[in-house]
Amino acid sequence: PSLAWLRMVAPQVPAWTQGYDSSELVPYQKFFLHAINCQPVSMEGGDTSIFLRQNMCSPQVSKVLLGEAACTTHHLMGIHLYKRSRCEAPVGLPELESQLFDDVQTQLTWDPRVRDAYVQRVLVLQWFGRSHQVKPVWLRRVMSAQLADGGWAWISPMPEVPPLLQGWSFGRFWRGVVLQQPLDDQYVSDFHPTAQGLLLIALSLRGK
Question: Which residue among 32, 47, 141, 180 is least enclosed by CB atoms within 10 Å?
Fold first, then answer.
């Protein structure tokens, strides 16, 4: 009962109303806290209400491709939590949410690297009511990146590209060609993408 984050896993309990030190949280985490308790959290330049009015991941090139790869998916997760908490929805939220979903589809098109962010992008479409927008090839690529132990790595191989050409560097060339060492030893299962991959599979199989 004393945890400000309790409503993340138990949305039926009363909202947290006491003070909480959010100074160590990054902006999207502050928005999550806002979303589960329906109370704006202060941040530089204002508070987290801006996440309900503005696309925080635009322009995509600088803020997603060259910045935080999971920016848009984190934004959508916050909105999902906000709606689940039955917080008062501002005018324009459906349009903002639709724009973010469109951005996710764009990212899946121009960023084909099968990594944690890629799995998360497919997952939010499947999870939050946009399963009709999930292309079969995106699911196949996620499945192709599953490792022998059933998990996913934070950075996974691109199934269409030979291992030698992935993440090209002199060091990889030396190890792969000269020393004949395996190039896939960096691909080790990680909890975060594995949890997302398993949830994505479960949601994709639902009803079949």
Answer: 180
- What is the C-alpha radius of gyration for the chain, rounded to an integer number of angstroms? 19
Distance of CA 92 to CAs 52, 64, 131, 149, Å? 8, 23, 23, 44
Number of alpha helices (DSSP H) and beta strands (DSSP E) in the chain: 8, 2
Residue-wise pLDDT for 12-64, tens only, equals: 999 998 888 899 999 999 999 999 999 999 999 899 999 999 999 999 999 99
Picking from 46, 91, 51, 111, the residue whose alpha carbon sits closest to that of residue 75 is 51
Cα separation, 89 vs 148, in Å, equals 44
What pLDDT does 109 receive? Answer: 92
Residue type present at position 172:
R
Task: Tell me what pLDDT residue 73 has.
Answer: 98
| Entry field: residues in the chain | 208
Tokens of 31: 């928005």
Structure token pair of residue 46: 């204002």
H or E element at residue 110: helix 93-110
Half-sphere exposure of 35 (CA within 13 A, CB side): 22
